[in-house]
Each structure stands twice: as structure tokens, then as C-alpha cells.
Amino acid sequence: MQNRNKIRSLAITALVILGITITPPVEANHPLIVSLNGQQLKSRFEVNNGQVYAPLLPLAAELGYKVNWNRQSAQIDIVTDSASRVREQSVAKITSKQVADWIVEQGAEDRYYVEGLSFELLDLDGDGEVEIVAAIDGGVHLGNYFIFKKASDGEYQMVFESRWKVDSLKLGEPIQVGDKLLYETLERTGGTGLDVEIAHLWYIEQGQVVEAWKGAVKEMNAMIPDSYSMTVAGYRIQDDQLYYWRTLSLLEDDAETLQGTPDTRLTMFTFDGASFIQK
């Protein structure tokens, strides 16, 4: 509630500083029309007890600002266009060669296939500084996955390394569980006649990557004739509970025709503040 009041106060202050025109009346509790230099804004404005309220994030985005929310310090930073451009220019200086050099210098392995390197710049923990998510595609089921975080001295440090082969570095919107922001990374693994996709849920805490849960979401087993099978799975998080269901289907040797009736099972996990524990 205290953070919400802070955000509301900031929104009200922003309206005053920017000189935004508010269409009267403002006595009742209802939405109202707000314009800036004659242009109507799309953000939702409301009047409550004689005060004007607006959601800070949509309003700042509409006005061309960037809002960074730091959960650890409970701080909101509004970045102006000029400051944002300076930061973007600084980030743009990061090159593939730099990332490759950091991997070779800081990684645990003796050799890396850096020719298969790709990377993305993302603010994963809402502190206003971008992290580097990088991957090396080393072959059909071979790869590496890395996360770098900017240290206090301004240099990037590797905080996570795993032999995950990933098909995409694109991370979806994080899932809020307790005070954690969970991201999903899909790993592709397997071997001759075996193809498996594993979902990893992880978050960043105190500069380190913590894996909260992992589970296979697809498994195609065509290793031995007369024992082919396919497993498809999924999960959903609701009220700090993770529901994970798997369906096993036996297949003919054409790896397509079903044998018998698929078998579906549900497993439940509870978030204990750090990871999901099976109930």
C-alpha cells in the first residue's frame, strides 16, 4: 500500500510539472479527459477526493519516458529521453567479440565454439542496468548458455553458465511468484532417437541466478523399435502453486500412430520462497 501511494503521488506531481490540461469538473470520482498541448492522452486518469490519479508506467511511456522499478530498494527511477539515449548508446557499444572474450576469460570450459555465439541485452531484475543473456549453438544437441551482470566497477561478470542448447534467446514476460520474477528458458537436449525439451524457471537474486524449477515439456523417444513413445507436458503457476501435467503416448514404429490410450498425470509443486517443492 505504501508503494502504491508513492506511485500515485509521483503521478500527481508529474501532471503538475508537465503542465497537462485537465478537463473539468474534478469533484466526482470518475474518469476524465486529459490533454497535453491539445493532444488527448490515452492513459486512464481518475479523480478521487479532489485529487487526480494516473498509472505511472503507462503515463510515462506515453510521454516518452522510461520507468525502472527496483524491487530490492523499492525505488522508481524515471529516465528522461536524453539519459535514455546515453544509456542506449553505452549498451550499443557491446559487441559479439567482447561477449566472446568474456566467455573465454570467465567460462569454466577450456574451449568454446564462439562462432555460434548470439546474445541479447535485457534488464532482468529491474535495476535499470541491462544484463547479457548469451548462447552458443554448438550442434544438434550441443550448446552453452550464459548470463552476465554488470558489477559495481562497471565490468560485466558471468553469473551463470550451463550446457543448455537453446533455440531462442527471446525471454517472455516474467512470472511473478512471491517477490521473485521468474523467467523461462527452453533447453533442447537428447541424442540418437531421443529429442527432449526442458523448461527451466529461474530468477536473479543478489546478482546470482537461482533455478526455481525444471521439467520436461516434450520428449520423443524413438531409440528402440517396438518401444517408441512421445510425452508432451505443460505447467501453470497459480497462487504460488505450480501444476505440472504430463501425457505419455505409446507409438507404433512409424513414430506417429498411437498405441492404446494416452496416460496423463498431474504433479503439484509449492513455492517455498526460493524454489518449487513437490507436494
Characterization of this structure:
The longest helix has 17 residues, at 2-18. A hairpin with a 4-residue loop joins strand 7 (66-70) and strand 8. The two termini are 32 Å apart. This protein is of the alpha+beta class and 279 residues long. 17% of the residues lie in helices and 48% in strands.
Percent range for β-strand residues:
over 45%
Please summarize the sheet with the most strands.
Answer: 8 strands, antiparallel
* Overall radius of gyration: 24 Å
- The helix tally amounts to 4
Low-confidence stretches: 1-22, 82-87
The structure class reads alpha+beta
Mean pLDDT: 83
- DSSP, total strands: 20
Which labels suit this protein?
alpha+beta, 20 strands, 4-stranded antiparallel beta sheet, 8-stranded antiparallel beta sheet, about 280 residues, 4 helices, disordered N terminus
Task: Write a brief structural summary.
By secondary structure, this protein is an alpha+beta fold.
List the helices and strands and how they pair.
Blueprint: H1 2-18, E1 21-22, E2 31-32, E3 34-36, E4 39-40, E5 45-48, E6 51-53, H2 56-62, E7 66-70, E8 75-79, H3 81-92, H4 96-106, E9 117-122, E10 131-137, E11 143-150, E12 156-162, E13 175-177, E14 180-191, E15 194-205, E16 208-221, E17 229-238, E18 241-251, E19 258-271, E20 276-278
